[in-house]
Write a structure and sequence with these properties.
The protein has about 230 residues and is of the alpha/beta class. It contains 10 helices and 6 strands.
């Protein structure tokens, strides 16, 4: 029986892809830089790879935040301060929110029946502002943000810090729900808890990372939980 659920935030409950595109377009335009779809798509690829390097322990958070813009500007052949553009982008990212379909309804259904916690690698300032804007902070018993925890998903240290902060925590009754195989699913499995992969686009799995469960829509989760 599951009693404790740890949720990822970005592209699990809140639509980070949409928020990222809007904030990035504004930040680049404000800096007088190209901001077309091709540029945004390329940034997305570069950004994802930098976070993967963080997950692998090859980059620090501070390096990721600046390096993604540095690499983009180098590819575009433009001169701009990557740190300044990053700071403006983060400020815009924190200003609004868009829900993944079914997220508010899911939290309303689950909160009275399960202990819900948030587990995110996102920047603390940005995530707290987005949660406040979305009005969903109250559904969670605690917020575990890697910048505050002192470790990042999928590191075991991140999950162990979360577990230590949850009263009467038991691994056998816990579930990690998230969209990232490399951080949410790998991290949860390495920490010894069950995992549920949220894959709304029908993404192919990876043979070396096997979630315990898989859902394609958030509304599938309550029925799954009833069977566990």
């Amino acid at each position: 029986m599951i009693t404790t659920i740890l949720f990822d935030l970005d592209d699990t409950l809140l639509d980070f892809t949409k928020a990222e595109a809007i904030a990035l377009h504004r930040a680049l335009e404000e800096a007088g830089l190209p901001a077309g779809k091709d540029v945004l798509d390329r940034y997305h690829v570069i950004n994802r790879r930098q976070w993967e390097l963080l997950e692998e322990g090859l980059l620090t958070r501070e390096q990721v935040l600046v390096r993604r813009f540095q690499l983009l500007f180098e590819e575009l052949g433009v001169k701009a301060d990557p740190k300044a553009v990053c700071e403006q982008y983060e400020a815009y990212l924190a200003q609004g929110h868009w829900f993944v379909p079914g997220a508010p309804e899911l939290l309303r259904v689950l909160a009275p029946r399960y202990e819900l916690y948030l587990a995110s690698n996102g920047a603390s300032f940005v995530q707290r502002r987005r949660l406040e804007s979305a009005g969903i902070t109250g559904y969670f018993r605690g917020l575990f943000l890697s910048e505050e925890v002192g470790a990042d998903k999928p590191q075991r240290a991140f999950f162990e810090a979360c577990f230590a902060s949850i009263p009467h925590f038991q691994k056998e009754t816990a579930l990690m729900v998230g969209d990232s195989l490399t951080s949410d699913i790998r991290g949860g499995k390495n920490a010894g808890i069950r995992t549920c992969w949220f894959a709304p686009q029908g993404q192919p799995s990876r043979p070396e990372i096997c979630p315990d469960y898989r859902i394609c829509a958030l509304e599938e989760l309550p029925a799954l939980l009833e069977t566990l």
